[in-house]
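Subgroup meeting minutes
Present: P.N., E.W., G.H.
Scribe: E.W.

1. P.N. recapped why we're keeping a running log of single-chain structure predictions: easier to compare across weeks, and new members can see raw inputs and outputs side by side.
2. G.H. added today's entry (217 aa).
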Amino acid sequence: MRIARLAAASLLAAAGGGLALGAAPAAADGGPGASAYGLTATGPAAVPPAPAVSSSSGTVGKRLLRTPRTKLLSASALDVRAAANRSRSRAAGVSVPMARLTAAAVSAACTNGTGSARLAGAVVGGRRLASAPPPNTTVPADIEGLGRVALVLNRQQRLPDGRLSVTAVELTLPVKNTQVRIASATCGRGPAGGHEGGGGAEAPAPTPVRRDLPVTG
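Output recorded in log:
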């Protein structure tokens, strides 16, 4: 609990310095732009991306000190920011009870078409997760009473328009196609590194974890 509180305090302190609260202007239609959101979920208990920002010019941002509480997931603080060719998303006090997944802090960043992700105090079923996982690290885990979940850390995907999407945590549950995404950032290359959609470097291939993580309680 103390680690989670410290992570939330650190996240909000870093968000200070001019971060806009509330609504932020969206990127102009047709511009390459960058975007970010804190968390989202699909399935029966769908949660729309929140908070979410996009920009094709100046820096804009949002933060939430409280997230809508659902049985599926929650976070104590969310902070997102986007500018022309860069974006980042940070989440503190993350919890997905059904999958026994918690994290003191989770973040994703994208700069000029290159992405990264960081996790602090992240645990699934009592097993600690890597703090700086390589792109597309897959972690299958068997959760007692639920079954197998598919966990991808530092999920990186090249979009059709050439931009890179980075999601720190992507969790697929065996419950009516339920999927949770936490801390996501998307950006493209600047003019000097411009390319047509699909012409850039491919996102790294998945990096599987060698052993499953059985969870017995």
